[in-house]
Amino acid sequence: MTTADPPFDALTSVTGALVDANDRLLELITLTGTASTSLDEGELLDTLIEPTIALLHLDGCRLSAKIERTWGTPPTVDLESTAHQWKSNRNVADESIEMVVWRTADPFGTADAKLLEAIANLAGNAIGMARMHAEGLAQAAIGQEHAAAAKLASAALPDPLIPPTVPHATIWAAARPARTTGGDLFVWAELDNQLWFAVGDVSGKGLPAAVLMTVCTTSIETAIQRHGEQGPVAVLDSVTRSTHRRLSDAGMFLTIALGRFCPTTRTVEMANHGHSPIVFRQAHEVRRISATAPPIGVLVDARAELESFVVQPHDLLVIATDGLTEQIDAAGNLFGESHFDALVASLELSDADHVGTSILATVDTHRGTTAQSDDQTLMVIGFHCERTRPLLIDATNQGVRALGPWLSEHLAILANGRFESRLGEIELAVHEIAMNIVDHALADAPSSRFALTLTVDDDELVAEFRDRGSAFGVAPSRPDPEHPQVGGYGLMIVEQLASRIERSRIDDLNISRLWFSSQGSIPAASGRKEAHDA
Q1: In CATH terms, are 2-136 and 157-384 the same topology?
Q2: Domain parsing of the chain, residue ranges
Q3: C-alpha–C-alpha distance, residues 326 and 336, integer Å
Q4: DSSP track, 348-361
Q5: What is the largest CA-CA distance in the chain?
Q6: Which pLDDT score is estimated for 282?
Q7: Most CB contacts within 10 A, which of 92, 169, 217, 466?
């Protein structure tokens, strides 16, 4: 029976190999079925490697990637002389990852090697998945940081709904960042019956520029309050002292033009650290106001010179950031400095809001479908009229009823009786627009408020409403007398009483204006202007 021994031994060997292979298959199935509720790289690898050590009776495992990790018993001496080992190298997201396992019991056979190759692939996939998840979280965190910075930057700038009001001047400003956040800023304030104003540009874009912009804005506002009596140069000296180190350490700088307007002398005083463009228009002739000092953050001892000039009715002061003049079109052509100056000179307007929205619309027409290439900030000051402080009106019927006494009081002060014969008509028209804003624009925001400002220039009165309601809140439909309808008649009455009606929208701000002549209304069909977006 000795002749049967070799076949029996061979059969036993094959059977053992099959059992071993089956065990390895079951082990692989067990490992691939192991689930982790975490997407953390370390926890994913622990879930995979720790069962592998138990199944293959390993002494230890080491993964070398950005961070080296070791499981099991770390070797105390050279691995090659004390244990059997298996190695694998692979690339995950352009990163080389090495896996080494060792054990002192048995050498690694073919079945072990195949199972370990599968485990190494699973480990690489786990690392890749964890890295993608971590990158997604980082991007989400950056997005949240930018959103928070955008809110902070927006809160640092003045509310365009309530500009300061001084005699003989109106002021308007808008800031449009190229990204979610930006480094452009503007500041306005009324101090001792004088109008203070500033436009600045922190170098760079995005979150770093936005953070420094908020710092600079606060510094400017504080310096105006503390050093305003000493004039614009002293204010900017203070801004330099408080911001130079921060700007210089960050490798950034601030260009800024700052000034004040005194209504009693009709004098503007300005100081300029490296800022452009600044255009002063008088009788449609324009001149540039140039910088007399480098930007803040370049030289700590730099000091601007004071420039002053007297303004006349209908003069304009336009201050912008270079994002407007450097805006390109689809062909790569800049809007340009000379084009900007010519535009300011050509506008047949002196109202600050009209000039500002017209300039922005012209720049937008130039760029067409091209993306905004830089932050864009624009400030316009018109020197031409008397203007009330804005009246903030509660978006309720009771709030609107307060308009009558306020109109009577302020028209008597502004117009010296020129509009007394039309007071009833003006009050009716203003009341109708106010109710339209309450009923339509702010219907879903009953706790909000809107603003009314009166401006008198020669024999013309302008009533201006500003609200942050739906676009556009004032009902635009005109009733057809042959087909009676509910609603819309109030606006038709307003069109008959006002010389002109204009509605526009800037970002989230609705602006409604009514013009009244002291001599009576002009047929509305000749003067009405439809709503547009700026």
Answers
A1: no
A2: 2-136, 157-384, 387-533
A3: 6
A4: ----HHHHHHHHHH
A5: 137
A6: 92
A7: 169
What is the Cα Rg of the chain in Å? Answer: 37
Sequence-distant (≥ 6) Cβ neighbours of residue 38 within 8 angstroms: 44
d(CA 302, CA 295): 9
Mapped onto helix, strand or coil, the DSSP state of residue 369 is coil
Instruction: Name the pairing type of β-strands 278-282 and 315-320.
Output: antiparallel
Task: State the DSSP code for 4.
Answer: G
Residue 184, classed as helix, strand or coil, is strand
Q: Is the dihedral of CA 194, 200, 206, 207 positive or negative?
A: negative
CA–CA separation, 149 and 119 (whole Å): 44
Distance CA 12, CA 18 (A): 10
126 or 265, which is more confident: 265
Residues whose CB falls within 8 Å of the CB of residue 65, separated by 6 or more in sequence, listed in order: 92, 95, 97, 127
- β-strands 278-282, 285-288 pairing: antiparallel
Q: Is the pLDDT of residue 134 over 50?
A: yes
Question: For residue 353, what pLDDT band results from cuts at 50, 70 and 90?
Answer: confident
CATH number corresponding to 387-533: 3.30.565.10
Per 3-state DSSP, what percentage of the chain is helix, strand, and coil (rounded to 5)?
40, 30, 30
User: Mind listing the pLDDT tens digit for each residue in 41-68?
Assistant: 888 888 888 888 888 889 899 988 777 8
> Which among 351, 300, 357 has a CA at the least distance from the CA of 458?
351
Which range is least confidently modeled, 15-19, 300-304, 426-430, 454-458?
Answer: 15-19
Return all residues near 81 (Cβ < 8 A) that are at least 6 apart. Answer: none
Q: What sign has the CA pseudo-torsion 22, 25, 31, 35?
A: negative
Domain 157-384: what homologous superfamily? PPM-type phosphatase domain (3.60.40.10)
Among the ranges 151-155, 203-207, 286-290, which has the highest mean pLDDT value? Answer: 286-290
Q: Enumerate residues 6+ apart whose C-beta is below 8 A from 19.
A: none
Tell me which CATH homologous superfamily contains domain 2-136.
GAF domain (3.30.450.40)
Band of pLDDT at residue 532, cut at 50, 70 and 90: very low
Which residue in the block uniquely carries the two structure tokens 């018109």?
382
Q: Any idea what the Cα angle at residue 167 is, between residues 161 and 169, rounded to 5°? A: 60
User: 81-85, 197-201, 410-414: which has the highest mean pLDDT?
Assistant: 197-201
Does 106 have pLDDT greater than 90? no
